[in-house]
Amino acid sequence: MLDYKDIIIKHYALSLSGSEIARQLGVSKSGVNDFLRAFDKCESISYPLPPGITNYGIAELVYGSVPRSGGRNESIEYPDYESDARLMATRKNMTLVFLWNRYSKKCAEEGKRFYQYRQYCELYNKWCEENYETAHFDAVIAQKMEVDFAGQTFNMTDPLTGEIMTIVVFVAILPYSQYIYAEGMLSTKEPQWIEVNNHALDYFGGVPALVVCDNCKQAVTVNRDWIEPELNKDYADWAEHNGTVILPAKVRKPKFKSSVENAVGILEKGLFHKLEEHQYFSLEQFNRDLWKELEALNKEPFKKKEYNRYFYWEEEKLELMPLPSMHYEYMERKTAKVSSDFHVRFDNAYYSVDKAYLHKKVSIKASSTVVRIYSLTGEYLCEWPRATRKGQWSTNPNHLPDTYKGFSQWNGPYFIQKAQLVGKNTESVIRTILKSRPYEVQTYRMCLGILNFTKKYSNKALEECCKQAIALNKQKYTFIKNTISVIADDLGVAGYRHSVPSKKGPERGGFVMPPEASSIDTLLSRSKFLADQMREEVDK
After folding, report:
1. CA pseudo-torsion sign 330, 336, 342, 348
2. CA atoms within 13 Å, Cβ hemisphere of 492
3. Which of 393, 355, 353, 357 is nearest to 373 (CA)?
4. Which of 162, 267, 270, 285 has the most CB atoms within 10 Å of its CB?
5. Whole-angstrom Cα distance, residue 356 to residue 121?
6. In this structure, are strands 349-352 and 393-394 parallel, antiparallel, or unpaired?
7. Residues of the chain under the 70 pLDDT cut
8. Do residues 522 and 516 touch, judged by C-beta distance below 8 A?
9. pTM as predicted
10. Which pLDDT score, from 0 to 100, does residue 135 have?
């Protein structure tokens, strides 16, 4: 339904045309103009509008009835949401489940089609937004779950690499009970987004009719007019799997998800202060502290209510829809080739595959926690826990041949021999790297990367770089990668494999010929000279 109050104010108070109003509201120009013409002809109402009138009341005065929203199936009986809203606001413990049961039973008795419970709740929520923008409604039990990210982030230090990583906090809430769930995430990509939403439903013990989310890319692709947003396909599939409906918030309208906004504020002004006093070395450690503080918060008495969040949640979870028997699992899919080190690379990590598939292509299917590898014909090969950091190696010794050191072109002697051609410093670095991992095969890519620098830089540059790496005890691929270009520049022409062509002059990669060199007389003379020379050689 159009926002009639907004259209009237924009037209009569701001003197905007129907086309300009339609552009600002993102609706049909003909729909706006048709309403303005009908409003002008109506004798029951005029501008300025009566105090307190709603869009519903305007529609009844102008049209005699409430026009249905575009695209609605007219064969389905539309609920009396005005009456339902009045009951929800005035009768204690009234629920949408009760109202929907009464509505569906009445329709069945009259032989009419009716909306299913999820659709009923979704339409009710939209009706309230359109007709009671300034009115306060108590949250409906088991109707919604609101989700969002907290603005504050935390730092985590990787104990192996020393890398500083950012923890983002996901927050979910049931508005009726104000029961809060939160979880730290190192990645906010779709697999992790689906996973934390699954965890929220598990924590709440059921599924609400609606899930109200922000317009993040993990949830919404396009949300121009809010009425028909384009959802992220995986999140839409997650909602269908769980039997709920995704309702994105209006763009730049924080009041649309006021409960989760309030929950984020409570966390950031309260227990987050306790968490930021600690230093974290794992996500598990952070979430353990977060959930401990969260449990205390949910059991802390309300200041203006009789009980606490936990008490009201125990009441609410009885009204939630049941959880599905299995979680919805997001799966990333990729085809990769098994390299000479018997591993495939996926998402900047390495996973071993049986030696029988060396140099063959395999299919990878990965969830947020597990990486499964199949042959291209669909045969299951193996699975691994998904890596938690870049460059992580997962190797099964049974995947490697007993004599893998001589099994393929990539082996220790091969890289040592190549390094000896460069110099003793390079050989020393390669020998050190070959011993730096539990399995030698895990180092082959680093050895290859170091030796491949000789394609661009000279042996002298690589030798000097390895000499510095040994002196500083930084015999690693990353050090050489970040240092060799500087050393090559210091060496000048001697630092590169091929001399860099001069940028001066009009010619690049050729030489200048005088114009007479291509004349016919010159070419004939040259040809005669070569023929005479050949005859003289034959005579001799």
Report:
1. negative
2. 0
3. 353
4. 267
5. 55
6. parallel
7. 1, 26, 64-74, 92-93, 129-138, 216-229, 250-256, 402-409, 499-540
8. yes
9. 0.46
10. 39
